[in-house]
Fold:
Amino acid sequence: MTESPNLVAFTPERLETVKEIIARYPEGRQKSALLPVLHVAQEQWGWLSSEVMDYVAGILKIEPVEVYEVATFYTMYHLDPVGKHVIEYCRTGPCCLMGGEDVYGHLKKKLGIEAGETTTDGKFTLKEVECLAACGWGPVFQIREQFYMNLTNEKVDQIIEELSK
Amino acid sequence: MARKILTEHINVPGIETFDVYRKQGGYTAVEKAIKTMTPEEVVEEAKKSGVRGRGGAGFPMGMKWGFLAKPEGVPRYLVCNADESEPGTFKDHHLMKCIPHLLIEGMIISSFALGANKSFIYVRGELMYVIRILEKAIAEAKAQGFLGKNILGSGYDLELVVQPGGGAYICGEETALLESLEGKRGNPRNKPPFPAVKGLYQSPTVVNNVESISNMPWIINNGGDAYATIGIGRSTGTKLISASGHIQKPGVYEIELGVSVEEFLNSDEYCGGIRKGHHLKALVAGGSSVPILPANLIMKTAAGEDRLMTYESLSDGGFATGTMLGSGGFIVFDETACIVRNTWNFSRFYHHESCGQCSPCREGTGWMEKVLHRIEHGHGSMHDIDLLVDISKKIEGNTICPLGDAAAWPVASAIRHFRDEFVWHITNPQEATAPGAVYMGEMALV
Structure:
């Protein structure tokens, strides 16, 4: 994010969504909208810069620090710029039993990066996450809302090649 | 065939839509409850059913409802806990994705029973696609007059809100969930006051798991007494089991409580047995938090009785030789699984997920992860085994919420039942750290 704070704004459609979200809660409880609104913000900007978090604080009429403490607590919010596709790979026990560690090794080699890194072409960021509640269909990773399940090395190759196009 | 309460219609094509769900008898329980029963009568049926909290704690749902404070002029809230994050557990994910209207119908009945006019379904943020499924189903139910103002002309109003989490296991703890729903960090609250007195927005609140609430349509249609005839003793009704690991058929299965562990594991109706050519080594029966059991204590209790899928039978023998039903996260390990590596993996999970509020958990989970990491990677000392037990004891019972216990139990039980495997890692570091190396010493396999 390089824009100055006054250039940060939701698109008109997203601003409508944000208003609908705020209206869900009782009068004076608009802070409840914080987590869902941060998801909307991340959808628009890809990650949460301090400018974006300050902007959200303004909309919800709360202090910026109230946004920072939430954004830094929950693992889904990206606090640094990310690639076009963020691969969130499950590293927890049940997925490992299904060969998750081997497939992970293959994925890292395929992308040429480690967890927390982004490919030089900016297409992929790799993140390790804990259990995604899909243990029976492991190994699993997630890209945005999409779950990729029963992964094998071949499947990983296919997915990465498809998304690289 | 076992009776199905939650999954009877789950494979009907189009069951995620209002019309198909309605054709299968959906929403008749809402009609019955709202048109012919009082809220107190609905609570009474829940009590009679004996249904216990399916998120893991197993506390009777009707009794929990009975604790709800009802001061004049103060709103009451029902919050559904759909933050399913316990490793090995994926049943709520499956249920909400496949048959969203079942939960919504349960929410309407339960909200009516509790006198709540605004209820929340808190879904872990990673399941955004499930949130969209639920929101679509809610819009359909609203269009048909089952939600919103003056439901079915009864004068009862209910609004359902689906709230996404942000990625935090701790928000499955009910007071952390309420903090999160208020737009804050998921730090569990000190209790008392309990949510039944001061919960969401300091108002009386009930928090129930997805599966618990989804039992309500059947209970209203058939009666709490009928529900209580299924199962054994205080383990009434059915339970969704999430089966994963080294089995033929991983997936979500609905069992009548009381089926034997052996049948669940080996019958083709359920797991279909251990994967071909392999043997059972260990089992985590109720999600990563519950004690791991070795093969010789899985099918039979220490007293030699058949081990059953019930709250009581799984915990038979206490932590010395038993475990817990927990959330029903059934993780199966064959002889190729390394217990030390898995224990380290689980410890890393709890360290990562500790909210950091209580020092025994914040520090202790990190120490356990570190010590287990060095044992797994060939740098452990014999002293480390007792050190782990010591740390686990100092965490257990010394934290605001049960995450501390949940982190301590897997470590303590792995050492209790698989100490030889830890010793082998420490005394044979080169062999133990070779790629794919697994302890094959003296060990009972089934």
